[in-house]
Specification:
Blueprint lengths: L13 E3 L8 E3 L1 E4 L12 H17 L3 E3 L7 H14 L9 E6 L9 H12 L6 E4 L4 E2 L13 E2 L3 H13 L6 E4 L3 H10 L6 E5 L7 H9 L3 E5 L18 H10 L3 H11 L3 E4 L4 H6 L10 H8 L18
Parallel strand pairs: 3-4, 3-12, 4-5, 5-6, 6-9, 9-10, 10-11, 11-12
Antiparallel strand pairs: 1-2, 7-8
This protein binds adenosine-2'-5'-diphosphate.
Adenosine-2'-5'-diphosphate binds next to α9.
């Protein structure tokens, strides 16, 4: 990665999370830290070395929000990159950063949550996270973190046990806020009925081809911010799709506005009051993805986006067990 031409430092706006997380400020764009091989459980040294360089360049560009997970196998690399950034003075303190990690299914059991979080913190070389998410509303037999989870190991989640342990982790100061990922409205309702600390975030697939209108409306009413993952439809991934980047309506808008389709999609997400995590290992695209704060979509643009046929692009059949 050549950073010689880099000069602009972007100032990324922030959204305030709910009062239960102390009105923590979350930068609206974060850098996704899932490397492509995660889903084959084969993250190797070249992947994590590349990620370290990318994180350092991202910090130079102005990224302050980084999104990882126990399952990604990248917590250690992210932690090393941040330690290096602090040593180099690229950021003055840990408090300048917003770090998210996630609880994987094998540890989604009351007594495993805090040990799993402590393991993530140790890999990250950190005292606390800014946000800890339940990665999926699914548990599996305790054991090594891995993907895919064998179907015979899938278990229904003990929502009360898991959420109470998540709350305890916030009360212990191991994380400043807690939230969910891949939770439907119905499952969020379940959590809300038993929560003392309501979730501050629900991170889900969201982009103009899967707009999540009802979920966004529901979360807004409950004070939960939605974070979009795979905002370009997971283009380039083994399970992903180019249906966002190749969408004709988005291409037309991008052409008319002198932006890229990626920028139109990211701008649309942010205009919904959501935050977004996007990965790029390419300096120009990392920069491009931040160029969305000095312009707006028009009513005409919205007319086009609202007509895009809707469907989920990321398969979720890994989670369907023949036993139900
Ligand atoms: P690259 O790293 O080559 O830029 P995710 O869904 O995990 O956030 O991944 C996003 C994918 O989209 C990555 O494969 C990334 O590839 C690609 N990408 C990120 N930003 C852009 C962009 N502005 N234009 C096109 N592709 C992008």
């Amino acid at each position: 990665m050549d950073s010689s031409t880099q000069s602009t430092v972007f100032n990324i706006p922030k959204l305030k999370l709910s009062s239960s997380s102390g009105h923590l400020n979350m930068p609206v764009i974060g850098l996704g830290c899932a490397v492509d091989k995660c889903l084959r459980c084969a993250v190797d040294k070249s992947d994590t070395d590349a990620l370290k360089l990318v994180v350092l360049e991202a910090i130079k560009l102005g990224y302050r929000h980084f999104d990882t997970a126990a399952m990604y196998g990248t917590e250690k690399a992210l932690g090393e990159a941040i330690a290096e950034a602090l040593r180099l003075g690229l950021v003055s303190s840990r408090e300048q950063l917003f770090i998210t990690s996630k609880l994987w299914c094998q540890n989604a059991h009351r007594d495993h949550v805090i040990p799993a979080l402590k393991k993530s913190l140790s890999a990250l070389q950190m005292e606390y996270l800014d946000l800890y998410l339940v990665h999926w509303p699914i548990s599996s037999k305790p054991g090594e973190v891995g993907f895919p989870v064998p179907k015979e190991d899938l278990l229904p989640m003990d929502y009360r046990g898991v959420w109470e342990a998540m709350e305890e982790s916030q009360m212990l100061g191991l994380t400043k806020s807690i939230g969910l990922s891949n939770f439907s409205r119905k499952k969020i309702e379940t959590i809300l009925t038993l929560a003392t600390i309501p979730p501050s975030i629900n991170q889900v697939e969201m982009h103009p081809v899967w707009q999540q209108r009802k979920l966004i409306e529901f979360c807004k009413a409950k004070g939960i911010i939605v974070t979009a993952y795979s905002p370009l439809g997971a283009v380039g991934k083994i399970y992903g799709s180019n249906q966002v980047l190749e969408n004709e309506a988005l291409k037309e808008i991008a052409k008319a506005r002198g932006k890229t389709v990626a920028q139109v999609s990211l701008r649309w997400i942010v205009e919904q009051g959501a935050t977004v995590v996007i990965k790029s290992l390419n300096l120009e695209r990392m920069k491009q993805n931040l160029g969305i704060f000095d312009w707006k979509l028009t009513d005409d643009d919205y007319d086009k986006i609202n007509q895009i046929p809707q469907h989920r692009l990321i398969p979720s059949d890994f989670w369907v067990s023949p036993q139900g």
